[in-house]
Amino acid sequence: MTWTTWSGAEAVGAGNYKLDDCNPDCAGGHVYSVATVVTLSQPVKVCSSADPRWVWTHASFTFPDGLPKALQGQNAPQNPWTFSPLITAAQQACAS
Description:
The protein contains one helix and five strands. The chain is mainly beta. It has one domain. Strand 1 and strand 2 form a beta hairpin.
């Protein structure tokens, strides 16, 4: 990844995403290297006995050159990702 933005609100980077078409299954599928821009956002504070840390809880992906046909439609990768268990755990850790 090459990060072009890194702030308290978001991080944006470009690189290649290795995506498996899982056809006929994930062990036997074809892996594509796809140009991708990733945006990480929605940081939450995680409290611990050490210093508190901030972690990203949302990741969205854009594919500037598009996706291969095998990875379009219902075969497209999940987008965006929201890490709900992480959000809940962070809220609970900081509530005490």
